[in-house]
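Section: Multi-chain targets

For targets with more than one molecule, the full set of components is provided together so that the structure can be written out for the assembly as a whole rather than chain by chain. Components appear in the order listed by the source. The example entry contains two components.
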Amino acid sequence: MSSETDQTPQQFLIQVTNRQQSYQCIEGESLLKGMELENAHCIEVGCRGGGCGMCKIRILEGRFNSKRMSKAHISDTELAEGFALACRVYPCGDMQIESDHFEIKSAAEK
Amino acid sequence: MKKGVMRPGHIQIRVLDMDEALGHYRDLLGLIEVHKDSEGRVYLKGWTEVDKFSVVLREADEPGMDFVGYKVLNNEVLDQLHKELIEFGCKVEEIPAGELDGCGRRIRFDSPTGHMFEIYAEKEQTGKWGVSKVNPEAFPMDLKGMKATRFDHCLLYGPNIAGTIDLFCNVLGFDLAEQVVDDEGTRLAGFLTASMKAHDVAFIEHPEPGKFHHSSYILETWEDVLRAADLISITDTSLDIGPTRHGLTHGKTIYFFDPSGNRTEVFCGGDYHYPDHEPVTWLAKDLGKAIFYHDRQLNERFLSALT
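Its structure, encoded as tokens over all components, is:
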């Protein structure tokens, strides 16, 4: 029994403050995939590959690892400010995040 | 009016991780890896393509498309179109032969939608992969994944598609094969062809310039598209939508994403176009059906997820 319990992946509580929603993210999954597996709907789902920016979030609290993401959506400055793409963020514990930071830029803003 | 542009010849796509990208384009799509150059770019092609390569992958910080190249009949056409591109007002740059290994001199130009394009006349012809030139068999035995047969077209998003469509039709000799128009008659999408295909390139009006919606690869049958769907699940690849049919072009299709978020399409079938055909028109109010003929409903992701 105890060995089975040990093998069960850990779950982390992800609070999405702007949506007043939360979900459990399985250890080893990205924030976005974890949300999709729970059938939660609190982060927009785009390409799931760090390219399109639709799942742009701001991380308010929590430890995580991340994979490379498009600089078109997360500049070095934004990265330092806690912005990230949820599909490239792998939580190491409970997290607090803010979703819905994706914006389509017009020619003038680019 | 045809002006000597033959076909889409190559596309250079930016990826975040080359090894992951090869898992997608080579192992899942089934393109043939043919070369790696001194800059680390990897060259691939569909097995039926006669030229050396059609897809070039470049590792970068920002996924998307660097440029699409079209092959023209010969160097006289290349020189003539070079002049006309300058007269049209494009910013034009001549890229020397060999900048892409195996490719001749290229004329690169910008466009009103913010995309970079190229034309070229010469590329090393290595023939169809895995079959002989004489008495060719139906297909090579050792193809991988979806067994994509060729790079077919791409769809690009940007502002002022009217300007880019003007450039493609009046300078490069493409025809408008299909379009989407709104109540005021404004064109929101244009599907252009330099051949009998329903599209060799397509544009959709969008505020941000230079955006890449997808690169597309042709399969032979609907069964192949369904098998592609199975492979997408087997490999846990990020699915966009499908298998389904488009209203526009009537192609049977499935969309999915590479590991850097660039969208890929594999499809089969679809309409044909001759130069005397009127453009096929879809109304913006029926855009759901125009894009996804079965669901008749757009998903936000198809409009907004771009690289």
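The first helix of chain B runs from residue 18 to 28.
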